[in-house]
Amino acid sequence: MKTIEYPLMATYISRKDVDDIMRPILQAALPKAAIQKRFPRKLVFGSLGFQGFGLHHPSNSQLIEHLQAIVTHSHRDSPSHDLHLQNMELVRCYIGSEQPFWDLPYQLHGHLAPKGWIHFTWEELSATNLSLRGPLATVPSNQESDVFIMDELVRRDWPDKSLQVLNPVRLHLGITLLSQCCNAVGTHTHPDIW
Predict the structure, then answer these.
(1) What's the pTM value of the predicted model, to 2 decimals?
(2) Is 38 exposed, middle or buried (0-12, 13-18, 19+ CB in 10 A)?
(3) What is the mean pLDDT of residues 2-25?
């Protein structure tokens, strides 16, 4: 298992793909340990306290490795710190929300983020009861009653396809807040909007 666990911090392999990788391994290894090869996987990966075998599912190990890397490198001056921070800022820009994306429901906002290591970690984290108070600054509001455009569109239940069409335009214009594209009377102020 250590050979499989070693590269997990650098990868983002889905749980389905990990199960596909583990299936032939377990079918070959379990009989060698005098265990029936179709033994329930919940017990194989279950803890010893619940009569399981105490093996860690590689997907769980992968998520733990990702979270440890984010927390560990957030306080160090290292290339990994810079990569994590830049990728988190990229996801934050694409999401365009007032809140840190770790706190947002992945089901509503995840389709806006670019695919990658941070996106995958957020997706896997959202399927658990864990939370991360990550090292990520948020965009400050310019005005007292300003509105984050993407937050408002998600709140109004805009379809995912519409948001995916609108988001590249918003990113191209460099707009996150309503005050960046119009004034209090509703006329546009952004030079690229006609």
Answers:
(1) 0.81
(2) exposed
(3) 89
